[in-house]
Amino acid sequence: MLIDRVFAETFAHEWVAAWNDRDLDLILSHYSDGVVFHSPRIARVMGGEITCVRGKPALREYWSNALAQSQSLFFDLEDVLVGSDAVTLLYTNHRSERVAETFLFDDDGEVFLSVAAYR
């Protein structure tokens, strides 16, 4: 899927709003069933040395745990970067961490791969 600025901005604002509303179903609606998500936070939330989760059910479990552990979760969107088939969001979270999260989209406009990096 070729990404344009309108798609990227719409996705970014919907995604951040869903997180800030703590609406897990709406968050997950942006992802394909076979999504793969990489983040250094997974190991902290789930325990062990887990670097990624695979599939919507595993992503739901991870994010359910993360939301339960972070009652003050909030994302402040700073910038939206557009690639050919990817979007990178730059935001600050409730812990004042700067985050870059990149999303690759399939032909249906759903995220099939996402990687989060923290400062």
Which sheet architecture does the biggest sheet show?
A: 6 strands, mixed
Q: Please tally the β strands and state the result.
A: 6
Number of helices: 4
Strand content: 25-35%
Helix content: 25-40%
User: Averaged pLDDT, please?
Assistant: 95
> Secondary-structure element sequence?
HHEHEHEEEE
| Structural class label | alpha+beta
Shape: globular
Low-confidence stretches: none
Distance between the termini: 29 Å
Rounded Rg: 13 Å
Strand order of the largest sheet: 2-1-6-5-4-3
Can you tell me about this structure?
This protein is an alpha+beta fold and 119 residues long. The chain has helices at residues 5-20, 24-28, 41-46, 56-69; strands at residues 31-38, 52-54, 76-82, 86-92, 98-105, 111-118. The chain has 4 helices and 6 strands, in the order ααβαβαββββ. It has a 6-stranded mixed beta sheet with strand order 2-1-6-5-4-3, with helices on one face. The longest helix is centred in the first third of the chain and has 16 residues, at 5-20.
